[in-house]
Design a protein that fits this description.
The complex is a heterodimer of chains A (163) and B (332).
Chain A: E1 2-7, E2 10-15, H1 22-29, E3 48-51, E4 54-57, E5 70-72, H2 85-93, H3 102-115, H4 121-127, H5 139-152
Parallel strand pairs in A: 1-5
Antiparallel strand pairs in A: 1-2, 3-4, 3-5
Helix pairs in contact in A: 2-5, 3-5
Chain B: E1 2-17, E2 24-30, E3 36-40, H1 49-61, E4 68-72, H2 89-116, E5 123-126, E6 129-132, E7 135-141, H3 142-153, E8 158-163, E9 180-195, E10 201-211, H4 218-237, E11 267-273, H5 295-307, H6 318-331
Parallel strand pairs in B: 3-4, 10-11
Antiparallel strand pairs in B: 1-9, 2-3, 2-8, 5-6, 6-7, 9-10
Helix pairs in contact in B: 1-2, 2-3, 4-5
Classes of the chains: A alpha+beta (163), B alpha+beta (332).
């Protein structure tokens, strides 16, 4: 079947079998391999993407369900102007180690901060609870999201910078 | 009722095992633009090993870490290494890259000495220069010297070395020997809350203070400790591989093998004891596995402090703690 959707602001389409998950569609049909295949059953969160302003485990969503909708993946965060404040904060604090959870963590964080850039530590922990990390103990990830929130809630941050 | 408790645990952990051969080899090449290339067989698994190796080489050559390009884990190009195991990379591979960098530096000194008109032992490598000791104005750029060594003298500034912690075999009669070359130490303290009606344990805060020799990259050491504590919290309270009678694992996926999420992590306070080990590169030892060693013990001590039961089988699930509390009630 033909699936047409917006990915990172661009209209995309590809033919895929109807049972194709959004994750597989992104990775194997659109060659966007930022979202990772971890458990494939919605436990680990490393496939997290944002669809119409809500974060989803893309391994649990059929590509057809995303048809016509607006999908943001980790590839959509950095542009020629530089990386997203969340990515910058992750880099600054050494928030990732092996990095496999990173794309999902950052997309969950973006989904939270887009709505609530002044999120409390508990709200951040809550927003990340579906994203497993084995290396970091989450500590530097949480600290980075707090820092990115401060950047994103400042007057200088362009509010139009979100898809 | 929620009962609070505090527990502490201390540990030591061996770095650089010597019970069998444990070598790392490395090659350091100083390029003619003043940068350096390091060849190492070790693997980056996210802990920052290659950053630390780059820092060691940069320090030895007097250049910036950004000037060092580390090529790793490629059997086409890199020498042999036992790998990122046994918390050995900073210590064993670090010693190998340091020796290799010192050999490359020696070639630079031998090239620069005659040009600067001083004996080779009167030189130091600092700020991307080869400089006469005590005369900072008398110097040559490391790039110039490297070019001179390579193109004029014909001895490129390339050093290769290996490090194998010295072995002392165990005496079969006395059982004495030296199984490890050095040791690291740590103390962790846990604050927990235990619900004495359900047995549920929540770790609220942990303080971890570790000695890893000189921390070459304190931020990365902190990251290792924080990660180790999360594994320790899982070990203490959640993680257990369950087997059926026929030997099959009952919980082979993340739905039922429960590991800590962001919500399970306590607030952490990490401290580093700035120590110096004369056998390590710039005084460094290691930080990997030791970070997870005392966590479960500290948490179990905190459970005892809170509700008076000793949990001797991990994980200390709510069922186990509740069971122990029932036993305690019966006994009293």
């Amino acid at each position: 079947m033909l699936v047409e959707l917006t990915v990172n602001g661009e209209w995309k389409s590809a033919d895929c079998p109807p049972e194709t998950t959004l994750l597989k569609f992104l990775r194997e049909h659109l060659m966007l391999t930022g979202a990772k295949l971890g458990c494939d059953v919605g436990d680990c969160g490393t496939c997290t993407v944002i669809v119409d302003g809500e974060s989803y485990n893309s391994c649990l969503m059929l590509a057809a369900r995303a048809a016509g909708r607006d999908v943001t993946t980790i590839e959509g965060l950095a542009d020629s102007q530089g990386v997203h404040p969340i990515q910058e904060a992750f880099e600054e604090l050494g928030s990732l180690q092996c990095g496999f959870c990173g794309p999902g963590m950052i997309m969950s964080a973006k989904n939270l901060l887009d709505k609530n850039p002044t999120a409390s530590r508990h709200e951040i922990k809550d927003a990340l609870s579906g994203n497993l990390c084995r290396c970091t103990g989450y500590t530097k990830i949480i600290e980075a999201i707090e820092g990115a929130g401060r950047v994103m809630s400042s007057d200088k941050y362009p509010q139009s910078n979100t898809f | 009722m929620i009962k609070k408790g505090r527990g502490m645990a201390c540990m030591w952990y061996p770095i650089g095992f010597t019970v069998m051969a444990n070598p790392s080899a490395a090659t350091v090449k100083v390029n003619t633009d003043g940068t350096a290339t390091v060849l190492t067989g070790t693997v980056e698994t996210g802990q920052g090993a290659l950053t630390v190796l780059g820092q060691i080489v940069a320090e030895a050559l007097g250049i910036a870490t950004d000037d060092v390009h580390v090529v790793s884990a490629d059997t086409d190009t890199t020498p042999m290494d036992y790998g990122a195991i046994a918390s050995r990379t900073t210590y064993v591979t670090g010693n190998a890259v340091l020796s290799a960098a010192e050999k490359a530096r020696q070639i630079l000194f031998e090239g620069a000495g005659p040009l600067l008109g001083v004996p080779v032992d009167q030189l130091k490598a600092v700020d991307r220069k080869i400089e006469v000791l005590g005369f900072p104005s008398k110097s040559l750029g490391i790039d110039e010297v490297s070019q001179h060594c390579e193109a004029v003298i014909g001895t490129p500034s390339i050093g290769s070395a290996s490090y194998n912690p010295p072995t002392v075999e165990m005496d079969p009669e006395t059982g004495q020997g030296k199984p490890f070359n050095t040791y690291v130490y740590a103390t962790q303290i846990a604050d927990v809350e235990v619900d004495d009606e359900t047995g549920e344990v929540e770790v609220k805060r942990m303080v971890a203070v570790h000695d890893c020799g000189t921390p070459i990259n304190p931020m990365l050491v902190e990251g290792q400790i924080e990660g180790g504590i999360s594994m320790g919290v899982g070990f203490a309270l959640q993680e257990e591989i369950l087997f059926a009678d026929d030997g099959r694992q009952i919980n082979p996926n993340l739905t039922n093998y429960i590991m800590p999420t962001s919500l399970d992590m306590p607030e952490l306070e990490v401290g580093l004891v700035d120590n110096y080990d004369p056998t390590g590169p710039f005084g460094a030892k290691g930080a990997g596995e030791p970070t997870a060693v005392p966590t479960a013990a500290a948490i179990c001590n905190a459970i005892y402090d809170a509700v008076g039961v000793r949990i001797t089988t991990l994980p200390a699930t709510a069922e186990r703690v509740f069971g122990a509390l029932q036993e305690l009630k019966k006994a009293s």
